[in-house]
């Protein structure tokens, strides 16, 4: 386990090298790291330079850098949202995350969230690529997570395993409203303003260990569980963020429809995942940018 002191060393390393003091953190999913490239006045830290930080091994899809800088956008300066001004807010952006299939234990995959917390981050925006299991979802759609199923926790492998340090949070944190109701509402409003209503959904996510994609039988079982989207990340980040009282909002980019029949030659493959991420990344980045700005107002 990473102790409080080790996490603080990471946080202090970054704080000593940037003038920014972000209250919003962003984790970018596979093929969705472009948002970090939109920041200005950036301080960029390759993960291998940050003491005790994990390093990205799926570097084709995750650049493996912490990018701290300013995100700019229109801010509504009156309560009726009629008057606006350009605002710049400090954010820290993980351009790449860690997955269990890379060989990291779940607590280590989520350790950067604690680093963010000790740097002053209060709200976390998460993006990731996922397969759409809900038959109404199409490749290119976006799902706001309403809830998750912590399958690894069911199996006795939770990200909060080990001795609890109360400085981060309680031994037994609640996971009600893990995906903040107000932030979800705000996300839906912003998506409507962007005229994305026809591709936005709200649903339940499950993280599997990967890296193999799911079998038809597994997907049939997950469908019975009430799962709408399937991926290999995010849940550990959310649990660790909620443990330390950060507010969370998370978005799946549905990169493929899950295949739930045997009588087909279709196969999920990572090239399609990245292709769809590339096609839809501009909308996803704009959505996250607008939500970050709106979050900063509230
Ligand atoms: O969840 P992110 O990091 O976006 O990555 C998703 O994309 C990869 C597979 O295509 C898996 O790692 C899956 O979890
Ligand atoms: O179909 C999928 N399954 C698991 N993870 C994924 N990430 C993108 N698509 C998928």
Automatic annotation (TrEMBL):
<dbReference type="InterPro" id="IPR035994">
    <property type="entry name" value="Nucleoside_phosphorylase_sf"/>
</dbReference>
<comment type="pathway">
    <text>Purine metabolism; purine nucleoside salvage.</text>
</comment>
<feature type="binding site">
    <location>
        <begin position="97"/>
        <end position="99"/>
    </location>
    <ligand>
        <name>phosphate</name>
    </ligand>
</feature>
<keyword id="KW-0328">Glycosyltransferase</keyword>
<feature type="binding site">
    <location>
        <position position="256"/>
    </location>
    <ligand>
        <name>a purine D-ribonucleoside</name>
    </ligand>
</feature>
<comment type="function">
    <text>The purine nucleoside phosphorylases catalyze the phosphorolytic breakdown of the N-glycosidic bond in the beta-(deoxy)ribonucleoside molecules, with the formation of the corresponding free purine bases and pentose-1-phosphate.</text>
</comment>
<feature type="binding site">
    <location>
        <position position="30"/>
    </location>
    <ligand>
        <name>phosphate</name>
    </ligand>
</feature>
<keyword id="KW-0808">Transferase</keyword>
<dbReference type="InterPro" id="IPR011270">
    <property type="entry name" value="Pur_Nuc_Pase_Ino/Guo-sp"/>
</dbReference>
<feature type="binding site">
    <location>
        <position position="129"/>
    </location>
    <ligand>
        <name>phosphate</name>
    </ligand>
</feature>
<comment type="similarity">
    <text>Belongs to the PNP/MTAP phosphorylase family.</text>
</comment>
<dbReference type="InterPro" id="IPR011268">
    <property type="entry name" value="Purine_phosphorylase"/>
</dbReference>
<feature type="domain" description="Nucleoside phosphorylase">
    <location>
        <begin position="23"/>
        <end position="291"/>
    </location>
</feature>
<dbReference type="GO" id="GO:0005737">
    <property type="term" value="C:cytoplasm"/>
</dbReference>
<feature type="binding site">
    <location>
        <position position="62"/>
    </location>
    <ligand>
        <name>phosphate</name>
    </ligand>
</feature>
<dbReference type="InterPro" id="IPR000845">
    <property type="entry name" value="Nucleoside_phosphorylase_d"/>
</dbReference>
<feature type="binding site">
    <location>
        <position position="214"/>
    </location>
    <ligand>
        <name>a purine D-ribonucleoside</name>
    </ligand>
</feature>
<dbReference type="GO" id="GO:0004731">
    <property type="term" value="F:purine-nucleoside phosphorylase activity"/>
</dbReference>
<protein>
    <recommendedName>
        <fullName>Purine nucleoside phosphorylase</fullName>
        <ecNumber>2.4.2.1</ecNumber>
    </recommendedName>
</protein>
<dbReference type="GO" id="GO:0009116">
    <property type="term" value="P:nucleoside metabolic process"/>
</dbReference>
<dbReference type="Pfam" id="PF01048">
    <property type="entry name" value="PNP_UDP_1"/>
</dbReference>
<feature type="binding site">
    <location>
        <position position="233"/>
    </location>
    <ligand>
        <name>phosphate</name>
    </ligand>
</feature>
């Amino acid at each position: 386990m990473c102790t409080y002191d080790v996490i603080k060393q990471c946080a202090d390393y970054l704080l000593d090298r940037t003038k920014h003091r972000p209250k919003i953190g962003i984790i970018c999913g596979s093929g969705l790291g472009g948002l970090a490239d939109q920041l200005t006045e950036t301080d960029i830290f390759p993960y291998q330079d940050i003491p005790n930080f994990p390093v990205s091994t799926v570097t084709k899809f995750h650049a493996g850098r912490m990018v701290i800088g300013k995100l700019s956008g229109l801010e509504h300066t009156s309560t009726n949202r009629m008057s606006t001004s350009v605002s710049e807010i400090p954010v820290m952006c993980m351009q790449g995350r860690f997955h269990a299939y890379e060989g990291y234990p779940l607590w280590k995959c989520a350790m950067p969230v604690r680093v963010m917390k000790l740097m002053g981050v209060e709200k976390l925006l998460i993006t990731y690529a996922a397969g759409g299991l809900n038959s109404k979802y199409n490749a290119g759609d976006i799902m706001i997570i309403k809830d998750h199923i912590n399958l690894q926790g069911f199996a006795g492998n939770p990200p909060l395993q080990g001795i609890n340090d109360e400085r981060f949070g309680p031994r037994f944190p609640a996971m009600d409203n893990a995906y903040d109701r107000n932030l979800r509402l705000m996300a839906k409003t912003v998506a409507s303003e962007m005229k994305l209503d026809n591709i936005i959904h709200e649903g339940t996510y499950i993280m599997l260990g990967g890296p193999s994609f799911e079998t038809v039988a597994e997907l049939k079982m997950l469908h019975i569980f009430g799962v709408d989207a399937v991926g290999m990340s995010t849940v550990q980040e959310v649990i660790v963020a909620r443990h330390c009282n950060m507010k969370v909002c998370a978005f799946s980019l549905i990169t493929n429809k899950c295949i739930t029949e045997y009588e087909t030659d279709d196969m999920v493959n990572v090239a399609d995942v990245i292709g769809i991420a590339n096609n839809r990344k501009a909308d996803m980045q704009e959505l996250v940018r607008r939500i970050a700005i709106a979050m900063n107002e509230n």
